[in-house]
Specification:
Elements lengths: L7 E6 L7 H14 L4 E6 L1 H4 L6 H18 L7 E4 L5 H10 L4 H5 L2 H7 L8 H15 L5 E3 L5 H17 L1 H6 L11 E3 L34 H10 L18 H14 L3 H8 L4 H27 L2 H30 L4
Parallel strand pairs: 1-2, 2-3, 4-5
Helix pairs in contact: 3-13, 4-7, 4-14, 7-8, 10-13, 11-12, 11-13
The chain binds adenosine-5'-tetraphosphate.
The site of adenosine-5'-tetraphosphate has 20 residues, from helix 1.
Length: 345
């Protein structure tokens, strides 16, 4: 019988710029919902951010910005653990160990590395290549069982499961000998649910909405004001046809499907219900409705982010307290990993 692990949620967001509506709908809204169901740990993954160049002042500001967004969106720092990754050294230690567990062939298959390294592969940092190993360490350091993420992280979660499995297999004799049963690490479940698991760029329906996209018009930032949100949706690329009444009618219409998915996620309606209401409407009718809804949902969060960012001392205290709590879970796990592997401590 395979071992049962205590349910625990872990996820993270990189401080690589302004958080987008994609980060919010794909990840953060789920973080908020899950904290009432399970012990939850939410990290600002600053060591992932530095796999690509980050200006030091921007990195510090974005780290506090992501923490502020977590708080503003409704993550309770008492119920959940909020911290930044670089404060808990065990992430880097387990990350190194996983560099020695994961196989080159596994990492060579990662599509995000190919997308982010682009044509300039030879000049990409080695950190960017082994990024998924550090992500596996983030999750498995807390023996997390559930990981709410957007669709783009699915492949990395599969790799995390492969690393956990290989570690459990490679050290099976040691696990038995030290009383850990047949598994030290769980097989974490990705939680990729809802109508907005992959929010697309407003300028190109084939590209993911991304905080590091050079075009600010491609995304809605959580801190955009009402006029900016309205302007970005007004200029969002669409086709000339009216919205269909049925889901089938969105086939091959990536931009239309994206806007319908965003409306559904923000309103809590199904996409069918959105089409039931707006089927037959032109985008000139639908886009202002979508803007109004987005402003209604995002304006209070933006105001709260601004209020929190005006008090960086408070944010730093939340991150410091969270790091201490995270470290107290991480250290015994790392110590056991060392014992299992025969690393003398
Ligand atoms: N467009 C998206 N739709 C749905 N979910 C998304 N996520 C990101 N973009 C979308 C989810 O947000 C969480 C945090 O993402 P991340 O900061 O770790 O990095 P990312 O996935 O690479 O997101 P970005 O915005 O594209 O960042 P950059 O531009 O720095 O690469 C993850 O759960 C992710 O799935």
């Amino acid at each position: 019988m395979s071992k049962a692990f205590t349910p625990r949620v872990f996820s993270g967001v990189q401080p690589t710029g302004n958080l987008t509506l994609g980060n919010y709908l794909g990840a953060i809204t789920k973080f908020v919902a899950l904290q009432d169901q399970q012990e939850s740990i939410y990290c600002v993954v600053d060591m992932h951010a530095i796999t690509t160049w980050q200006d030091p002042a921007d990195l510090s500001a974005a780290t506090r910005g992501v923490a502020a967004a977590y708080l503003a969106a409704g993550i309770d720092p008492v119920k959940s653990i909020i911290f930044n990754q670089s404060r808990v050294g065990a992430h880097a230690e387990l990350g190194w160990i996983f560099n020695c567990i994961a196989r080159m062939g596994w990492l060579n298959r990662m599509t995000q590395f190919k997308e982010k390294a682009g044509k300039n592969r030879e000049n990409a940092s080695t950190g960017l290549f082994v990024y998924p190993n550090l992500m596996a360490a983030d999750i498995l350091l807390y023996q997390a069982t559930h990981v709410p993420v957007g669709e783009d992280q699915k492949q990395h979660l599969e790799l995390t499961r492969d690393i956990a499995q290989k570690f459990n297999n490679d050290y099976a004799d040691q696990l038995a000998r030290l009383g850990f049963g047949d598994a030290f690490f769980p097989q974490p479940e990705p939680m990729i649910t809802g109508p907005a698991t992959r929010v697309m760029s407003l300028r190109d329906g084939s590209k993911k909405m991304s905080k590091s996209d050079p075009s600010d018009m491609s995304r809605i930032n959580l801190t955009d004001d009402a006029d900016t949100i309205a302007q970005k949706f007004r200029k969002a690329r669409t086709d000339p046809d009216p919205l269909p009444s049925e889901m089938d009618g969105l086939e091959g219409r990536a931009e239309a499907a994206n806007l319908v998915g965003i409306y559904a996620a923000l309103s809590g309606m199904t996409q069918d219900a959105v089409l039931g209401e707006f089927g037959g409407s032109q985008f000139s009718t639908f886009k202002p409705e979508l803007s109004d809804l987005a402003v209604e949902k995002l304006a209070p969060i933006a105001a709260e982010i601004r209020r929190l960012e005006a008090d960086p001392g408070h944010i730093d205290q939340v991150l410091k307290d969270g790091a201490e709590r995270a470290d107290s879970i991480a250290q015994p796990v790392l110590a056991s990993v060392k014992d299992i592997m025969g690393l003398v401590r």
